[in-house]
Every structure is written in structure tokens, then in C-alpha cells.
Amino acid sequence: SSGINVEYGEFETFQHYFKRINLRNRMSAALAPYVEKLDAALAEKNNDTDFLSMAEEKSGVPKRNIVLGAGVLTVVWLAIGIGSSLLCSVICFIYPAYKSFKAVESTRGDDDTQWLTYWIVYSTFNIMEYFTDLLLFWIPMYNLLKCCFLLWCMWPVENNGSVIVYQKVLRPFLLKNESKIDAKLNK
Q1: By the number of CB atoms within 10 A of the CB, which of 8, 73, 124, 134 ranks highest?
Q2: Percent above pLDDT 90 for the chain
Q3: Which residue has better confidence, 27 or 102?
Q4: In 35-149, where do the E strands start and end?
Q5: CA distances from 90 to 3, 32, 94, 143 (A)
Q6: How confident is the model at residue 93, as a pLDDT?
């Protein structure tokens, strides 16, 4: 006998430990590009990063951790907090409204289309939400889900949620009913 006394339960614990390490490494690798983008954005010089630098200096907490902490706090607030509906509305209205202002003031035309598409989807969603509010009220963490959906719709990529919803759902419906809608509006 070698003096090593490893029971089956201890071996199982080691296997579980190494599986957790492997999972953690895979998650870190998957998140690495996003962390790099966040770090690059935090390295830029603007009013927001100046404020974060001041907060970092006074608190001793790195800017990345401040931003991630604020993000986690926002998610928790949206999930269970009082006033989460207002917070969701602010998040999903203020940024797109400002970006729409910037699009109107720019000479490029593609950004106008991007934000008009968002507002069509946003308006349709709000109208549908108004009529289904009594049902939606019972969905746990509804405001978090709503905010995630609208963030997906405004995400600054070519085929974000508003493009997909518009192209697959709203555009076919509007094209099919365009003459009827025009007739009602011209009365």
C-alpha cells in the first residue's frame, strides 16, 4: 500500500472540481471579446469615462467593475425592483431618442432608417402591451424581459431585433394592409 487513501467520494469531488474549472475557463474565453470591447470603450476619452475615472480614483474600484456592478444592479432592479417599469422605459426611450436626434442631424441616410425601424417596432410593442397588460402583469420579471427585448431591438448591429421583427412580422402585415390603412387615414 502506498499510503494514499483516496475514497471514491473524494475522487468524485476532484472530478467535479476540475469540471467547474473547465467550465469557468470556457466561460472566460467566451466573455473575453466582450470584456476587451468594454475595456476599449472605457479607455476612450469622453465625459462618461472622465466621470468613471473620477469615481475609480475616489473609490479605488476599477472602472470596469463600476460599470459591471451598475449593470448587475440594473438587471436586479428590473427583475424585482419597485419602479422597474419606469427604469425600463427610460433605458429603452432616452438612448434611442438621442440616437434618433443624431441621425436626423447627420448627413447619412442609413442611420435614419435604423432608428425609424426601431420606433415602428417600439410603437407596435407599446400598443400591444397596452392591450395585454393584465396578462403581462403576471409574468415574473416581465420588465427585465421587456428591457432585454427592446435592447436587442436597438443593439447597434446590422441585423438587430428591430430589423428582424420589422422584416419578418410588421412589414409583411403593413404591405398586405397598406391600401386599407391608407383608405382609413384619408377619410
Answers
A1: 124
A2: 38
A3: 102
A4: none
A5: 65, 29, 6, 12
A6: 92
Q: Which residues of 65-88 are buried (b: 16+ CB within 10 A; e: fewer)?
A: ebbeeeeeebeebbeeeeebeebb
CB-based burial of residue 92 (10 Å sphere; 0-12 exposed, 13-18 middle, 19+ buried)? buried
Query: Residue 129 contacts by C-beta under 8 Å, 6 or more apart in sequence?
Result: 136, 146
CA distances in angstroms from 167 to 44, 86, 123, 160, 170, listed in the order given: 35, 29, 15, 11, 6
Find out whether 61 and 55 touch, Cβ atoms under 8 Å.
yes
Question: How confident is the model over 130-183, as pLDDT tens digits?
Answer: 899 888 878 888 889 999 999 999 988 888 999 999 999 999 999 999 999 999
Angle between the N-to-C axes of helices 63-80 and 142-154, in degrees from 0 to 180, rounded to the nearest 10: 130
Is 155 within 8 Å of 161 (Cβ atoms)? yes
Position 1 confidence tier, pLDDT thresholds 50, 70, 90: very low
Which residue has better confidence, 108 or 153?
A: 153
Q: Are 103 and 115 contacting, i.e. CB atoms less than 8 angstroms apart? A: yes
DSSP 157: S
